[in-house]
Known about the structure:
Strands 1, 2, 3, 4, 5, 6, 7, 8 and 9 form a nine-stranded mixed sheet that branches. The protein has a six-stranded mixed sheet with strand order 16-15-17-18-22-23, with helices on both faces. The protein has a five-stranded mixed sheet with strand order 10-11-14-12-13, with helices on both faces. The protein is α+β, with helices and mostly antiparallel strands. It is flat.
Amino acid sequence: MVQAAQKTRLKQGPEDGYSTSSMRILEGLEPVRKRPGMYIGSTGPTGLHHLIWEVVDNSVDEAMAGHCSRIDVTLGEDGSCCVVDDGRGIPTDPHPDYPDLTGVDIALTKLHGGGKFGDGGYKVSGGLHGVGVSVVNALSSRLIVDVYRDGKHFNVEYAKGGVPQGKLKVLGDAKNRSGTTITFWPDPTIFEEIEFRAQTVVERLQVMAFLNRNLEIRFFDRRKGRLQSETFKYSGGISDYVKHLNLSKEALFKKVGYFTQSDADQEVEVAFQWNTGYYEGIHSYANGIATTEGGMHEEGFRKALTNVVNKYSRQKGSLKEKDENLLGEDIREGLTAIISVRLREPQFEGQTKSKLGNVSIRSLVERATNEKLTEWLDENPREANQIVQKSIQGARARIAARQARDLTRRKSALDGAGLPGKLVDCSSRDARETELFIVEGNSAGGSAKDARNPRTQAVLPIRGKILNVERARLDKMLRNTEIQALISAIGAGVADDFDAAKIRYHKIIILADADVDGSHIRTLLLTFFYRQMKALVENGNVFVAQPPLYSTLVGKEKVYLKDDNAKADFLSKNPNHKNEFQRLKGLGEMDFSELRDTTMEISKRSLLRIEVEQAAIADEICSVLMGDDVESRRSFIQQNAKDVRFLDI
């Protein structure tokens, strides 16, 4: 057997189909169309909107360079997106080393080409990989560039993934105007859907306006039935951002702290304010790019913050000589802070730029925080004392939470396996294939138990509505029976002890009725996961089941429809359908076969994956929906109830 295998390998050569002639060299923008996920993350809604971010980021780079004061973003009725800025305009002259290529040709058709790599284009920039707008061109069925520069209006058009439809030409004079206008139509053969979501765009544009003081960003939705416009311009910059994030919370004091510092090639600005809540909201940016995984700038701020507050507490006698130092988590409880750094040569991890690696920026941020925050505390003694007292309360709560955790662990050890008694576990121990259904109510839990695949699907019934963790410290949470059951079942700890590598199930699925109470239960559970097991949400492990609202017979086959939109779509495709539509009952009233066929059977069900694209916005929404500000919650629901969408998988 071994000898035969060796002979087979020796015989393999050109005749097996693998030779130099079978290799392909992808030219121009072809690699982007071949592997779009490498450049924009996915071909779903996230990747679709990434096209807008790439174009807008270029305009923001012009603003950071001091050459742009306004950006307009318009969603057209024909499915296009148009981004207009009043910057310098993309260079239109031929490149000295490549006389057949203008600056526009290089920016739009060459990967890793543009003004971000030379010394004279941009001091700081977000789009440092140089693939941004060329990727948009590659993934568009059509793209038009209008450049207003040197008193002239230049124009060129591309189609079918970046193929030029002629040379760059002059359309006329533009003596009183400068800037770039890019209009593009996403390619429907690349993307799963090509309809932009206005709210997603608005949220991102508002953040960009916060990060760039006095930059005016206007949004227009010209699509039929969706006419809207928004204008963002903030004279306070990131200080206004902090105020905005704390609107739905109760501020500990009215003042928003702010400081900035710079050296030769980098600068930092920080804005901060504490609230009476229990969660920290530190959000960092580098050259306008959200660094959701943090990095050196966050490390420098956190370390210096802890040192400064401890030093101040001892100087003022709030901490005695025998007292232990406050921990960073005690001090950051209820803190909302924005850290925005700009630097010439940022070292991002990967094209997604989610973590900053420059050691030099850590030193600058740490030094600035040590000096400037100390000054701020000295100049604002009343607010400083409130920060210290809240930190001391946080330390006491941390000690109480540790005792509660230790008690929970001791209970688990005494119980044996440490799993909650009402958990109906699955037989597989391979977390990659297992699922945990969190089911509202014991009756629904019974149906789910009978409907599940016992090898890979576990069921945990919960009673009623769990504790609202937005309004409770960890020590109180850990005394709640339902939350104890959730923590034990998932098996990876909680809060700072949470370790995503230890989760017992790779899909955590919330299964609740499609009514108001069910929505409330889903929101409570999602808030718990986001606040106390954040990595679960960030890693895509949390899902919401979609039990259908309707069923109808097509011939002898029963067809299930998710909601009213699905029903309307079904009727538009089947106008002669005469059978009645049965509105399905709640989960507890479904028999096990119906629950299995509609909600739990992998080949038939529809799940919604919960995703977090922008941590600051997710933080804000959690506070709005689950905090004490009733008016903010009502306003948010009224504005967004009709525009809630998830990712079907």
